[in-house]
Amino acid sequence: MSGAQQFSKRTVFWARASFVTAGCALIGLGTFLETFALSVVHLFGYALQIFGAMVLGFGAFARGTICAELFLRSLNRLAR
Questions:
Q1: DSSP string across 9-64
Q2: How many domains does the chain fold into?
Q3: Which domain holds residue 68?
Q4: How far apart are CA 23 and CA 56, in angstroms?
């Protein structure tokens, strides 16, 4: 396995892990604040949940983009 392929696999792994972890942490913190906090902090919990969902969505988009790029690279290699 070449260095570029190994780097690409690491990039895909870390992109997935970091976005999923961050999104889940934000949603979890938002749910905690929404459930146990009062008024203004309660609304802040909602905002964190929405932001966490956006981070998860961006992570899925980024992961899909990276995977598509790797797929196209492998097709180019096969075509040579």
A1: HHHHHHHHHHHHHHHHHHHHHHHHHHHH--HHHHHHHHHHHHHHHHHHHHHHHHHH
A2: 1
A3: 3-79
A4: 5
Q: What is the Cα 55 distance to its own chain's centre?
A: 6
CA 42 to chain centre: 25
**Confidence tier at 73 by pLDDT (50, 70, 90):** confident
Q: What is the three-class DSSP state of 80?
A: coil
32 close to 48: Cβ distance less than 8 angstroms = no
What is the pTM (predicted TM-score) of this model?
0.49
Which amino acid is it at 73?
A: R
What is the C-alpha to C-alpha distance for residues 29 and 41, in angstroms, rounded to an integer? 11
| Amino acid sitting at position 14 | W
